[in-house]
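To: structure desk
From: M.T.
Subject: fold request, one chain
Message: Could you run this one when you get a chance? Sequence is below, nothing fancy, just the single chain.
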Amino acid sequence: MSPSSDRESAGRVPAGNFSTWLSVTLSGGDSAATTDVPCGDCAACCTSSYFIHIQPHETAALARIPGEYLIDAPGLPTGHVVMGYDEHGCCPMFVDGGCSIYDDRPQTCRDYDCRIFAATGLELADDNKALVVDQTRRWDFDTATDIERVQQEAVRTCADFLRAHAHNLPPGSVPTNPTRLAMLAISLHSVFMGGASGIEHCIMPDIDVVADALTESMTRTRLAP
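Reply: Done. Structure tokens follow.
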């Protein structure tokens, strides 16, 4: 039996190589790209009371979704909409155990990757997301090399640091939303890595260093098109 089969038989699901996943996640990818998540038969994100943001240019998705399922997206320009969920928390496009518009599904669905929670050690507190939390706990990253283990430790240390010191960091720089916090910890993890002669290890930076990194991140976000 292969190592991945051993993990699956123990209730664990291979999440892929950590360094490769981290690199792809940090790159952001092309706006038309699809996140390659090895979901298997898991449909937790389709059945966990998520609002799905759909942008005006996503004409294929908008053409497939009946208008009664869409409302204007709060705080966003005209044309941005969100799709809600039914009384059971299911996406209205989730039919007979699968996505009925899979080839034309919104970019939000294509980008969703619950491995960010496994990577950071963060969990969703919403009771409606219990299925996502269960899947998150099953993910098992391949961290066979020292650098991969250090990267994962740095990501988790960054997430813990941001939560513990949010009140001492620039106002508004640390999101309370766990998804955004997870992505922030991933983007700033390198601040928690150091070492000489190419030997990396996880470090605990001064809070001022983290604050500067957060300020730079906020500036980049404001300047982004």
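Reply (cont.): The CA atoms of residues 27 and 187 lie 10 Å apart. Let me know if you need anything else for the meeting.
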